Amino acid sequence: MIGLIFDDKDRKRFDQLRNKMLENRRSADLFSIYLNRFPELVKPQLVKEIADDCGVSSKIAVASILSAAFGIDSERSQEEREFERKYIDSAVHILDINTYASDPYYTNIKVPVKDVGRWSFVDLSYSAYEGFVFSESVIKRDHSEVQSIGFFENEFYFPAVLENGREWMAIKPNEIETMRQPIEEVSGKVVTLGLGMGYFAYMASLKSDVTSVTVVERDPSVIELFETHILPQFEYKDKIKIVKSDAFDYLNNNETLDADYLFADLWHDASDGLVLYQKLKKYEGKFSSTKFLYWIEHTLLSYMRDAIIYNDSKRLSEGMTGAAVCAKVIKGFDDYLHFLGNELPYYLRENDIDLFL
């Protein structure tokens, strides 16, 4: 672990971590521009032509198209070849439609295509080879973060709800993948903060070892939509209880939680989720007998870690040295460990903490 003096060795290791963060950010920025502006850049015919002409898989064909579009020239340098291999090739996933089409929610819950006030139930789709984020980034032991970008070889439809014509919620492969682990983990009495289209509540209710699912939702119109059009289709609707309340009011107004697990899903993504996540973590002490689970927690922790690295890099560049920057680094890392609790993520083991710094 870092000592009381931030010496040249520490500085070198910290610089290595900062450079890794910059690589991660470059990858994230490239994919962000692609997904937000040109998600249908990859054309099925082009994928087929490259795969046939070069004798490669569709995954490699897609990766080569993206690398060219991103301006990555793997012939230019070893660094570019390594970046392409680690961040582009590994990010591409050709997904099996049947894996998702057979999901119990898709199979058993038939969302009606209709308008209800400001809400609209619709079917949306990903076209063939349209890229999308299908799961959280994969964080390697060297702290590189590889995006998880999915592609279907044929058009894939999914249910969604629009609010005043804008997408409010949808059950996409991303929701399925990012909720898979907490759904597998919960048992007994479960509380979930946030309703959405009821995916988590439905999948949890199917488990024989889950006895009840209490859903805390503050928007009465969302509750009405759910109770009218979705809940009646649940096989185990008797397990579901809806509480109309703001999530934090609910936690503040209860001295105890009669729950084995609490799953929080109050944010759209990490950009608006980190502050809420930090607020919710403070309640774990109050409700120590309930295990708290959080949607996209690894992504939230990644945001927090990057903020620590960025802030401490700025301090170093501004000339803060020795014990002063050491204290700041340790304080930031201690805050980070506080949010990890007793379970370090797979990419950060006890004997690797000094490597993090």
Q: Top keywords for this entry?
A:
357 residues; alpha/beta; five-stranded parallel beta sheet; 14 helices; 47% helix; 18% strand
Rounded mean pLDDT is 87
Helix content: 40-55%
Shape type: globular
Rg (CA only):
23 Å
Largest sheet: 5 strands, parallel
End-to-end gap: 8 Å
Q: Please, how many helices?
A: 14
Structural class: alpha/beta
The run of helices and strands is: HHHHEHHEEEEEEEEHEHEHEHEHEHHH
Strand residue content: 15-25%
Strand order of the largest sheet: 12-11-10-13-14
Number of strands: 14
Low-confidence stretches: 346-357
Structure description:
The chain has 357 residues and is an alpha/beta fold. It has a domain at 95-170. It has helices at residues 8-37, 44-54, 58-69, 78-88, 97-101, 104-108, 173-185, 199-205, 220-230, 247-253, 270-281, 297-317, 322-340, 353-356, and strands at residues 92-95, 114-116, 119-126, 132-133, 138-139, 145-146, 149-152, 156-163, 166-170, 188-193, 210-217, 240-244, 261-264, 291-294. The strands form four sheets. A five-stranded parallel beta sheet has the order 12-11-10-13-14, with helices on both faces. The protein has a four-stranded antiparallel beta sheet with strand order 2-3-8-9, with no helix packed on it. Strands 1-7-4 form a three-stranded mixed beta sheet, with helices on one face. Strand 8 (156-163) and strand 9 form a beta hairpin. The radius of gyration is 23 Å and the shape is globular. The termini are close together.
